[in-house]
Write a structure and sequence with these properties.
The protein is of the alpha+beta class. The chain is built from 4 helices and 7 strands. The protein has a domain of about 130 residues: Immunoglobulin-like, CATH 2.60.40.1820. About 30% of the residues lie in helices and about 50% in strands.
Length: about 190
């Protein structure tokens, strides 16, 4: 009998250790947010907006960001569409933040209308709405996110290549303001 007790205790202890090692903690929801909205380039033809998206993975295993996509709007009484940003197939680290900066180039008419609102009101608010699809081995998540940032006219001054045309009395800021009034009449 004594000979069976020691092997039985050993077997029970081994089964306990093996079963404890096989259990994994439950998968937690990752979070997605926009940490920054930045203007990187403004010309008379286009405007570039960089959105910095942060994915926090609380899990001890790596994940894959299959797709992050968002739309950029500016507010002028009603939301006006500016452009779309998207990126796919991004590795997400375990137990930490993964940061991705996604540029969106905004075309002529949309950029002019947004700058005209800025000149007319002295500020413009950019809004980002989107979602991210994150795959963590056995499950996947779709996380929605949104963020807004208000830009003042002074935020654009360093981005404009010139504020006046050399050798003339033409001030680009004044012309943009006039264009803003004209666009209001045409679109209003």
């Amino acid at each position: 009998m004594k000979r069976l007790i020691l092997p039985c205790i050993f077997i029970l202890f081994a089964v306990f250790i093996l079963s404890a090692a096989c259990t994994e903690p439950p998968i937690k929801d990752p979070t997605v947010s926009v940490s920054d909205i930045e203007l990187s380039d403004v010309t008379l033809q286009t405007m570039k907006v960089n959105a910095t998206v942060v994915i926090f993975n609380p899990n001890p295993i790596r994940a894959k960001l299959n797709k992050v996509a968002f739309d950029v709007y500016y507010s002028d009484d009603i939301p006006d569409y500016l452009g779309h940003g998207e990126q796919t197939n991004i590795d997400v680290i375990s137990s930490g933040n993964t940061t991705v900066t996604i540029p969106v180039t905004i075309g002529n008419i949309q950029a002019i209308k947004a700058v005209a609102t800025l000149v007319r009101k002295g500020s413009v608010t950019l809004n980002i709405n989107g979602s991210a699809c994150i795959d963590i081995r056995v499950t996947s998540f779709e996380k929605r996110f949104e963020q807004s940032r208000q830009f003042q006219a002074r935020d654009f001054e360093s981005l404009l290549p010139v504020t006046s045309i050399p050798g003339t009395s033409i001030n680009i800021t004044d012309k943009l303001q006039q264009l803003g009034g004209l666009l209001d009449k045409v679109t209003g």
